[in-house]
Amino acid sequence: MSNVHFHPNDDILLQHACGDLSPASSIMISAHVELCPHCRQRLEDIEQHQASVMVSSESEDITPDLQAMMQHIMSQETETSTPVETEKTTTIMLGDKAFHLPHALQRHSENIGPWSRLPGNIKRAQVTVGGQSKMNFIYMDSDSALPEHTHQGNEITLVLAGEFYDEQGTYRPGDFILQTDEHKHVPKTREGQDCLCLTLLDAPLHFTSGLATLLNPFSQLFFR
Ligand SMILES: [Zn+2]
């Protein structure tokens, strides 16, 4: 029984299986799937289904030999994301804390920038993966909060370590949270509990309450 409670929807998984997601979004899904046995199974089912649709739609045009061969290929163990152990960075450091990096990110480890400090005991390290959207590690120290904000686009958050909570729930390692411009939230950590997340933003955050609205020019900081 998995402890992961928040998952990507079928549509996103299907797009991932079809290779239709941006590289950055695919990293987010791959990292989630690594942490979530439930979605690993769902993805396998989708891939099997896609494969069988392909075989049946093409079967009129191909010879039985070829069809048998294709079925044989598709019945092979699908490639897993578990790589052969080579010399590579498997952790991300923050001060003297080491956090395990998901395999999906290990090959991008040289693209992880230095940590910078944001207001509210938050630290951020950018991951350069190309494309329009911005990927960041966000580290929230214990007992810290991000100002209330909405999203002008989509925000995907994947918890890697520790936990945080907002008005909708508590999020733990593996949880995959998709926020759109309809959501408004105040992510917080509890006392004695820090949190490391990987986030993907496709537009700057928009801070909505009180003094935090003054941060709006500043929200570009989250989006670099
Ligand atoms: Zn899942």
Automatic annotation (TrEMBL):
Residues 114-199 form the ChrR-like cupin domain. InterPro entries: Anti-sigma_ChrR, Anti_sigma_zinc_sf, ChrR-like_cupin_dom, RmlC-like_jellyroll, RmlC_Cupin_sf. CDD domains: cupin_ChrR. Pfam families: Cupin_7 (PF12973). This is Transcriptional activator ChrR. It comes from Photobacterium sanctipauli. The lineage of its organism: Bacteria, Pseudomonadati, Pseudomonadota, Gammaproteobacteria, Vibrionales.
